[in-house]
Design a protein that fits this description.
The protein has 13 helices and 24 strands. By secondary structure, it is of the alpha+beta class. Strands 3-10-11-17-14-13-12 form a seven-stranded mixed beta sheet, sandwiched between helices. A five-stranded mixed beta sheet has the order 21-20-22-23-24, with helices on both faces. The protein is globular. It starts with 15 loop residues before the first helix and ends with a helix. The protein binds glycyl-adenosine-5'-phosphate (GAP). Glycyl-adenosine-5'-phosphate (GAP) binds next to strand 11, strand 14, strand 17 and helix 9.
Length: 448
Amino acid sequence: MSETESTESGPAAPTPELFDKIVNLSKRRGFVFPSAEIYGGFRSTYDYGPIGVLLLRNVKDAWWRSMVQMRHDVVGLDAAILGPPAIWEASGHLANFTDPLVDCTNCQTRHRLDKLEDPNVCPTCGAVGKFTSPRDFNLMFKTQAGPVADAGATCYLRPETAQGMFVNFANVLNTSRKKPPFGIAQIGKSFRNEITPGQFVFRTREFEQMEMEFFVPPDEADQWYEYWCATRFQWYLDHGMPEPLLRLRPHDADELSHYSTATSDVEFMFPWGWDELEGIANRGNYDLTQHQTHSGQSLEYFDQAANERYLPYVIEPAAGATRTAFAFLLAAYDEEEVRGETRVVLRLHHRIAPFKVAVLPLSKKPELVGPCMELLATLQGEFMCDYDETQNIGKRYRRQDELGTPYCITFDFDSLNDNAVTVRERDSMEQERIPIENVVRYLQDRFV
Ligand code: GAP
């Protein structure tokens, strides 16, 4: 069973080839499937398979753990996805959440004007000067609530989770015993009718966000902005992203929204270059002002100690869960030579890895499978486990390497006598014989 010859290697460079390998691995191992595939697919939507759903859940859990569970000053929220036009009018999305769109009259393709290399040349057919005049295209999905299709029934799928936190600011303030500085965090689906979705799950029309609105006294906004930039950058490092593949990029003045005094993006080196994982913005009191004005409800906080009322400023770290899961896959993918064969391994952090442990009986014989299942049941109470009794043990190790499983536990015929199992670590492939009664503790010690 022993494996040797681990060679020096690190995370693969984010090349276009790596992109293809991840898309291929995702389909082959059950991370991500094209949506509605048996009907020919539905463009730019994806389904997360048995492994991908665990990966995505782990990304969200890791975010929630550090943003809510480990803090005394942030509470959670799960707001509605459907919202009335009033919210989006106040937030500015109805008027401003648009992209400039042009159609090529030669090949009938549609493009975002601001993303064209040359605004006169169609990137699909090369026609020059064949674009229609640009028109603003609103990215929100519009639908109707209830059976009657009149204007009163119009509603929108949220294009960001953030507005749920702003419209609930007073509710949370009045019920949670928090006062500024404090935050409201939310994870959930958002929808944007992107004109140019693509690059696998990087830009899709349906995606998940992890956003937190941190409400602060105005004179503390600058310091909290710096704090959240540093804290969020560190989160990616703490979960195994190699530092050379990450950067924090402050926005230039001409990139800032009119209400933001500062914004920085956490960027990842994707196969096509640096691109955004998360934006951290100092939004001032723009959002609360807008909702206060449009709703007619006061959203001011009364500071008893200072005997003053004010609208808090907001620092917003806004990340994409699906995009971040993709970046974790790209950063973790590695290939190395082991005994003349290529081993593919996802060197995922244990919090992000879909399975923490795989339990593998050496043979399918009932005398091994029975006690192995007992061990599995014990471990399942503590960790997300896989169980696999097919193929030879080497192939099963390779499969777990491709899933990023940090530990494999093999129950063999000796286990029946010595009450011990072989624990194999993913990255080093080193193996240790551990008494069954110590296995839970052994793993817990390694998953801190
Ligand atoms: N509330 C602020 C806000 O929504 P954003 O930069 O538009 O800011 C935040 O979105 C994050 O959501 C982005 O950094 C990205 O990770 C993710 N995101 C945005 N649009 C996306 C899309 N079409 N597909 C996948 N992820 C997306």
